[in-house]
Amino acid sequence: MTHNDWAQWDVEDGVLVTAALLAMAPASLPAAIRSIWGVGVIAVFLHAIVDASDAARPALTDVVFVFLGAIVASQRSRAAINAADAAKQAPDAAKQAPART
């Protein structure tokens, strides 16, 4: 057992799993920072560099992925709300614009 989850994942699961996790960690960073509980996901990924505690407990890893899913869902929901608001405001802006002849 290593003292680094990233190395442990590489040895046990292979390079593809490690590459996927390495791509996922920085990709989730901007959305995780906007969510107070999402900062915990960042902490787990950073903690995995120096300690191999999470790989031995699958339930903890499951919680991280549930939080990642919630982060993605909240970002998509927020984007959909913003798009709906923009669509509602677009007709109003067209009504307020003076007609040019």
Proportion of helical residues: over 70%
Shape: elongated
Strand residues, percent: under 5%
The biggest sheet, with number of strands, parallel, antiparallel or mixed sense and barrel status, is: none
- The number of helical segments is 4
Number of domains: 1
Oligomeric state: single chain
Order of helices and strands: HHHH
Mean pLDDT: 75
Return the structural class.
Answer: mainly alpha
How many runs of DSSP E, i.e. beta strands?
0
Radius of gyration: 21 Å
Give the low-confidence spans: none
Q: What is the straight-line distance between the termini?
A: 77 Å
Secondary structure blueprint with pairings:
Elements: H1 5-13, H2 15-33, H3 39-50, H4 58-96
Helix pairs in contact: 1-2, 2-3
Explain what the structure shows:
The chain is mainly alpha-helical and 101 residues long. The protein is elongated. The chain contains 4 helices and no strands. The longest helix has 39 residues, at 58-96. The protein has one domain (5-94). The chain has helices at 5-13, 15-33, 39-50, 58-96.
